[in-house]
Design brief:
Number of helices: 4
Distance between the termini: 77 Å
Number of domains: 2
Order of helices and strands: HHHH
Radius of gyration: 23 Å
Oligomer: single chain
Structural class: mainly alpha
Number of strands: 0
Helix content: 55-70%
Shape: rod-shaped
Strand content: under 5%
């Protein structure tokens, strides 16, 4: 005579749903936000807002200061774009 546990495990849909949830949680804990990275701002950095400059610098692990002005952040972005374009050689 089947028990309620036997009946619950014989259905495939709940099992696969549970397995998908566990897999998703494991992937999220391993990769974190790298699974769905935030979009970089595009265009001329001079037209970016403070938040867009912060996002661009944070995405590259450049650790911008929250107290920095927009002008300082724009200069950092431009400097890093120049260095990236020249291969990082100085």
């Amino acid at each position: 005579m089947p028990t309620p546990l036997d009946r619950a495990t014989s259905a495939r849909a709940p099992f696969f749903a549970f397995a998908a949830i566990v897999t998703g949680v494991a992937a999220w804990s391993i990769w974190g936000n790298d699974i769905l990275p935030s979009a970089d701002p595009t265009g001329d950095p001079e037209s970016w807002t403070h938040a867009q400059c912060m996002t661009w610098l944070n995405n590259r692990n450049l650790h911008p200061s929250a107290l920095a002005t927009r002008e300082v952040l724009v200069e950092r972005v431009k400097d890093n774009l120049r260095n990236r374009g020249s291969g990082g050689a100085q």
